[in-house]
Amino acid sequence: MHIIIVGCGKVGRTLAEQLQEEEIDLTLIDTVEKTINDVTEDIDAMGIVGNGASINTLMEAGISTADILIAVTASDELNLLCCLIAQKTGSCQTIARVRNPIYSQEIGFIKEKLGISMIINPEYAAAQEISRLLRFPAAIKIDPFSRGKVELLKFKVLPEFHLDGMSISRITEKFRCDILFCAVENKDALTIPGGDYIIHDGDFVSIIATPQNTALFFKKIGFRTNQVKNALIIGGGTISYYLAKTLIDTRIHVKIIEKDPNRCEFLSDLLPDATIINGDGTDRALLLEEGLETAESFVTLTNFDEENIFLSLFAKKSSNAKVVAKVNRLPYTDVIDDLDLGSVIYPKYITSDSILRYVRAMQNTIGSNVETLYHILDSQAEALEFAVHDHSPVTGVPLSELKLKKNLLICCLTRNGSVRIPRGHDTVEVGDHVIVATTHKGLRNICDILEK
Amino acid sequence: MNYRIIFYIVGWVFNLQAIFMVLPCLTAVIYGETDLGAFLVSIVICLAVGLPLTNKKPQNKVFYIKDGCIAVALSWIVLSITGAIPFILSGAIPHPIDAIFETVSGFTTTGSSILTDVEILPKSVLFWRSFTHWIGGMGVLVFLLSLLPLAGGYHMNLMRAESPGPSVSKLVPKVQSTAKILYTIYLGMTVLQIILLLLGGVPVFDSLCITFGSAGTGGFGIKNDSMASYSTYCQVVTTVFIILFGVNFSAYYLILTKKFKQAFKLEEVRYYFGIILASVILIAVNTRHMFSGFAEAFQQSAFQVGSIITTTGYSSTDFNQWPALSKTILVLLMFVGACAGSTGGGIKVSRVVLLCKAARKEFQLYLHPNAVKKLKMDNKAVSHETLRSTNIFLSVYLLIFCGSILIVSLDNFDLVTNFTAVAATLNNIGPGLEVAGPMGNFSSFSYLSKSVMIFDMLAGRLEIFPLLLLFFKDTWKKF
Q1: Mind telling me which residue stretches traverse the membrane in this protein (chain B) (predicted)?
Q2: Which residues of B253-277 are buried (b: 16+ CB within 10 A; e: fewer)?
Q3: Which of B155, B156, B173 sits opposite A27 (nearest CB)?
Q4: Which residue in A268, A372, B39, B299 is deepest, having the highest Cβ count within 10 Å?
């Protein structure tokens, strides 16, 4: 499989890093020679300096034999042009990043008429993720599977839950909830736990369950799960716009603090129901004046990671709000995770996850394919959803008899729209959707879950 | 410095060396020679060191350019020393320095020999001598890369440190596939030459050894007079193939992928053939009176030019007897060397072309001091970085060259001998002129001079910096 990535910014690079672990020939195109040199230093890929919308550059990159072209340069128009030219010169699928809100309403038209296979809008995707968190503030991270029927949800174990020292099988027994613990992170490592794994305070636990069951479980352990009533957003960028729009639709009161007066006017024009404050979001007095202490949620979306982190820490200290921080820079995730910021959103990961999902789905071989894919912790583990289309060694055999890979857990089976947490005697059948959590990388079809 | 992974790679080099030595073992078995023991003991020694080192895959696979250079330099030193063991054990070359000289000369595809009479050596030893050329030609780590999947993009650093030329480009996105393609082309051309030689009636053993020597652009002969006693057909086939092995291998890849236009447009390859053609004609005219006809003069001149510019070092006639002009051209060709990305040595045609272009640009800057002009190669702008490293390469190269001549001159040979001997070893050619000429050898040099030349050969093959890095104090500092 040959993939060409145009644009080696943060997203391009993250994508390349994740794709290189799979059996893929990568060609990277960027206009800046130094960027190409830096990237190919770390990544086993061919680098080409040039304009990705130029036919010659694309030919040099081997567009005629490429399977997918991914355009993730800073400019929407260039991305679309790259895809158009790539389709005319080769016969590949194209993926473009388009994030201007003006185009976002026309995405259906662009995809259909221009023949682009996939349009990604990282800002919109990030806003969706944040809005999910605000509707269910107990979670640090929520990733939906099977169109929202099942959720992968991460939360921190606090002392008031009285779960410390209990094994997973005891927890499920005691609370009688149909949930599944699919990953536990603590200081040392990430584990795909078995039933005898002991949970401790401070662990980050990822569970898979239907939204109803999750809510039930949280109620039983005594965790506040109500949707927030208001949101204080710092920074009025594109994510803020999408987020505010989604939140207002679900009747959450939104207050946006933005420095640039022109941008404020623009936002107030587009979002008449939101309160737009023109001021410096890092000003302590202003934050307190605008009711930080009584805010139920606090979302920092400025362009500076440092500001976002700093403000989140301040909000944690001075209020009970659900805090969500946006972080652009990826290499420091380990430090950020230690800070206890609440929820952290990495728009770059959201983008590369959705592209990776598409790429994996294209590679499917034996009649099953990856529908959804999420990273659980800093790409140490993945949760994947497979759609099973055909008979294979996995189907029809009780799960307890399958020789599964180590550090792999079948978390959930969706059959005819009903969701069940699988037990040992269950079988995978054709037509099922299977969710798997694992530390193995590069699973492409359902048979990959078996020990070779 | 990631010592774990460096040792892991060096360990693999030990293992590979053991595998390589199986071939001379077979030769010994076929010819019923008693040197089998020497090779078997060497294999055991290599495995005894290699297997424990490669037992566990290192966890930390982060691999910077410095680790790459050190791993490559150490690997080549390991190759040289372990490769010399059979020579010593079999008694073919008793003195360790001599044996290492011969091995280094083999692996670096130099072809300078300290042996006065090669015809009395056992076949297995001769085979091993020639086979080291073949391994060294494309590089042992490139071979390793084609076999060993090291995760991440880091192993480009290994390839960069071992492959000749100012800038290394991959043929295909994956390093491993690139290495595989390179070795496939290499192997294919080798087999082709062997077949053509066999068709010409050359004995199997001879055609194997001649081909190994030409493929790696090495030049160890298995006859005392190198190639002079072989038929004209054999010489012509060898001439064509040596010149082909000196071409940038990416040209072959372009041809294989049917991009003929691009292949024939490669600037370096065009200059390479231009230089060869011009030199051949000049020398043929110059040496016409020494041969029975112009055709023979042309053929002999083509053989010598091809052999010298690709830094092979075979000779089909004693060019030491040629007129001064011809000898001078040959000496100059020694420095030019083959194309980057080939198996040849020397400064490389691309660097010479680049330097000439830079000089031309300098002239223009005198005329138009504020002119902005980009150097172009293959219609692409050459980055300032590439040009700078080319300049530095040349200066360090000259420094080493001068230093080596100075030390070698202690032996009291004439200037021509010293000059060409150092040029022949630093550029990985083989024969020089006078004492070190095609009919002579390097045995009369002192052990000090030989050690210097061993260093020169390694430095020349690894393009100086990876090897010099070993002697740079800061390399070994922890911080």
Answers
A1: 7-30, 36-55, 67-89, 131-151, 181-205, 236-257, 269-285, 329-347, 392-410, 452-472
A2: bbeeeeeeeebeebbbbebbeebbe
A3: B173
A4: B39
